[in-house]
Specification:
single chain; alpha/beta; 9-stranded mixed beta sheet; two-stranded antiparallel ribbon; 11 strands; 13% strand
Amino acid sequence: MHRTRQHDTGRASREELRHYDEIALVLQGGGALGAYQAGVYEGLAEAGVGLTWISGISIGALNAAIIAGNAPQDRVEALRQFWNTICQPADLVGHASAWFPAALGFPDLARKWAGMWAAARALTKGQKGFFKPRSPFETLGFSHGTPNQVSFYDTEALRATLLAHADFDRINRGDLRVSVGAVNVRTGNLTYFDNSVIRLAPEHFMASGALPPGFPAVEIDGEFYWDGGLVSNTPLTEIIRECQHKNTLVLQVDLWSAQGHLPENLLDVSERTKDIQYSSRTRAITAFMKQGQQYARMIKDLLEHIPEHVRQSNEVFRQAQRVADGSAVNVVHLIYNNKSFEGHYKDYEFSVETMSEHWHSGLDDIRRSFGNADWFEIPSHDLGFVTHDIHRHPLAANAPDHRELADTDDAARIATADSRIRVDA
């Protein structure tokens, strides 16, 4: 049983959540955008939400390691330290790039120039505590090596960073279930490494984020693994599959939005391609699961016309009964909304300023989500599967075909701005 303090009137309280069998945090991959997930977790922590399962892909896996590898009261600070380690403050050129357009009255252009320079620094110099460029001889194809040597960058520093900020003995005690996805390079199959099955090490989390050709494959037990986002950038299906007979709340935190603006140049094309590729069709997955729940309801209605003794004596009917007696699944969906000054480089723009903006966006979104107390109630078993999203019209939150609306209500953000906690550099 999970308990927490009560929230303000009209806001979701722990009482709505304590009746769930599973409360799962699902974290998508997205590189530097992953600070948004850290902000979401800060909001969960301040609300006292007691997670039972955390699952991630790529940067989501790294955030999962930090969360699961620390005591609940230390997790937000550990996330802050981790992100301040792998991000870096602007240098002289970055400051100049931001100051000059801003002085002329173009703040968005200032942020764009500063971000582009920070991304260029990441490409050419790497990121402290995360990755560094290999020598030109290694990357130009003149040498041959194993899959863990063939990449533009070396990620060995990430292992030390994970060990510094996460206790892997705590992860493997199993107080919080942890699973991270990676792709077997040889077979092409998506594999989930789960602390309820095996002992997890830094390599399992690094493998989940080993996106080629930038990052090298990670060897685990004689097999090589790449970033799980190559097959699916969200572990949502894995969570729902294992929770078929449990009342489950899924907090799905995505870093890429499948919907966006039409591209106007080749850089826009690159950005939209990433958005579509890595959004991993989360909406399609939830629509499919909702349809499955409708089929289960139909089976249940049909079984009511079958005599009880026939249902119990026939194995086919007994299996149908198990399908029909599925649980209720509630997906609260949080999706990072692109900023006007961001571009195709947003997933490798690791400046401290942008990281802080991502973090606060996540914190704002989860706080606003908790303002809708009814979203966190266990769905009716007749309905079975529902989704909610703060960036969609509240009256259409459960409709499978409603359109995503622009988030223009600044007043809703201002309402929580005074309680923000700055992510210090």
